[in-house]
Amino acid sequence: MTNHDSNGGTTIKHRHRQEGPQKHVIAFIFSIVLTLIAFASVAAGGVNTAFTVLLLLVMAVLQVLVQLGYWMHLKDKGHMIPILFMAGGFFVAGLAIIAALYWMWW
Question: Where are the domains of the chain?
């Protein structure tokens, strides 16, 4: 798609690519599957507690990535600044947790 500007030159107008509902449906189904896996691991009861906790943590991290990537659109171009601020926040929060644990157990 081209347009002519007032100086006689040609400008190229880029269209914003629309994202259809297919990816949102897939992300929603993936979120439901992650939730069902986490629920099943706890409901099973006979599974090792350490394995269940580790599985829940992995499911939680995957769920956060799906939520941020597809529902908050952080996978799209132009979202590097929010990603950097969130990474900085996670870093500071992690340091605060480590410092608190170190302080309590010292």
Answer: 2-75, 77-106
What one-letter code names the amino acid at 82?
P
Spatial CB neighbours of 63, under 8 Å, sequence gap ≥ 6: 31, 34, 35
Asked if 41 contacts 47 with a C-beta cutoff of 8 angstroms, the reply is yes
Asked if 56 and 38 count as a contact pair (C-beta separation under 8 A), the reply is: yes
2: left (phi over 0), alpha (psi -120 to 50) or beta: beta
Query: What proportions of the chain, in percent to the nearest 5, are helix, strand and coil?
Result: 70, 5, 25
3 state DSSP class of 76: coil
Count other Cβ atoms within 10 Å, centred on residue 41.
17
Averages of pLDDT over each 10 residues, the chain, 106 residues? 57 63 83 90 85 91 84 74 86 95 90
50, 90, 103, 104 from 97: Cα distances, Å: 21, 10, 10, 11
